[in-house]
Design a protein that fits this description.
By secondary structure, the chain is of the alpha/beta class. The chain has helices at residues 6-27, 34-47, 58-68, 86-93, 112-116, 138-148, 200-209, 231-242, 244-262, 289-298, 328-336, 348-361, and strands spanning 51-55, 76-80, 97-101, 123-126, 151-155, 163-164, 167-168, 175-179, 193-197, 214-216, 219-220, 275-276, 282-285, 337-340. The two termini are 23 Å apart. The structure holds pyridoxal-5'-phosphate.
Amino acid sequence: MEFCDLKAQYQAYKAEIDAAIQGVLDSSAFINGPDVKALEAELSAYAGVPHVLACANGTDALHVALLALGAGPGDEVIVPDFTFFATAEAVALAGATPVFADIDPETYNVTPATLADKITARTRGIIPVSLFGQMPDLEAIDRLARQRGLWVMEDAAQSFGASYRGRRSGSFTGIAATSFFPSKPLGGYGDGGALFVRDADMAERLRALLNHGSRQRYRHESVGVNSRLDSLQAAVLRVKLRHFDAELAHRQRAAARYADRLRDRVRVPVVREGQASAWAQYTIRVPDRDRVQARLAAKGIPTAVHYPIPLHAQPAFAHLGIGDDACPAAAQAAREVLSLPMHGMLAESQIAAVCLALEEVLP
Ligand SMILES: *Cc1c(COP(=O)(O)O)cnc(C)c1O
């Protein structure tokens, strides 16, 4: 069994993907080819956001957006304590200071209350993460930010395809960043990412920053980065986008099956009223997690821990001197979470095998 079965997915779409890749090879338009423009238009229609800029990866998307938002030395940007490292890494790379907010222990996401706790005179913005595929309450977070004169950018790296009352992830904040890393809900065959942008002027600035600060060839208005999406990735992503709703529906059914079978034994994911998760991960909580994980591995069941170390405890941020008491819910989640196999090709029999093994090994 695979934790995220990219091989099965490739086999399912092989004819279309091979043809798409061959098309790029035949055109040899490897950078900024027609597939990149077409993908941007399709993502824009899908997410309901006027401007989409494809780029090299999700971390660059966050970093470049922070540059455009003017985050720099002396500024504080609030991020969740419980997320993938890149959210805070982008803040630090821009020269600003990441400040870690605690999470709602049920959804693993930040809340207006945990964020409000961390706002100071130096705070410039907030990056709420839609962890494991479910958005936080972005409307309430946006209200809080507006009251306090801050910007908000959704880190939608795990939530492309998620929705809240019919509106998609990426459309709730002025700028949102996503990732097409292979194991994300919409994954390419290498690195990739995108920015979702409401404002046309901001979109133009971001597009220049992603391309060496240049809009016109060999004329550079600012110092930017080289972060473009390959045409090959765009071609693969366009094929996968055509099948994406079916994959989301499959993940949704898999999540429901897991919950039916496991909710009496362990803490299963909580999805808030009106939210539809993209199910980037199916993450439960178990006592004695490391032992449960090892015993599952011995039975051939692959699992993963997202994430074993909260950001405040990362060696890279030791200089900030933040203790476990600052974000107790994040610290506890890091000790208990365990992600089960979840992908758009997961078979009923595999779900049954995971649940059976889990029931056998739980303390
Ligand atoms: C994957 C991920 C990123 C980074 O995306 P890359 O494309 O790998 O650079 C950022 N934030 C979160 C929450 C992620 O899960």
